[in-house]
Amino acid sequence: MSAQQPPTLTTENAGIDISPISPADRRNSLEKHLQTRPEEQDLKNRHILLDTNAAPSLQAKALELERQRATDNLKKGLGKRPERGELVDRNILPDSTAAPSLQGHQKDLEKHMRADSLEKQLQNRPKPDELVKEGILQADENPITTS
To answer: How many Cα atoms occupy the beta-carbon half-sphere of 68 within 13 Å?
Structure first.
């Protein structure tokens, strides 16, 4: 009575080709994909396949044990980690509460402030003649006069 109607386009199959594939096309497609299949070692290098000789039924347990071992080693290493204060005392960490992204700028600013302070002190330094007059230097110690 009713003839087969073509499938209607719905949101579930929108943009999907639902026409049947011939067995020959399917076989050719499979063969083409098998020819371009990556090598086993390549898959192991990319961590897609596990690089193990364990039976597949034991691979999950072996992976879990390996992760647990790494976790235990990390906890042990963190337990031996020196405190921040000790690292600051040993000049490994800077003694700063600034964000790490600002610490470089802070260090540059401190360097420039020290240079400015030194320059200011050198400008206010007494002249050798004044030091001779005050008795701090002797006349023959005056670095300006030539011998």
So the answer is: 6
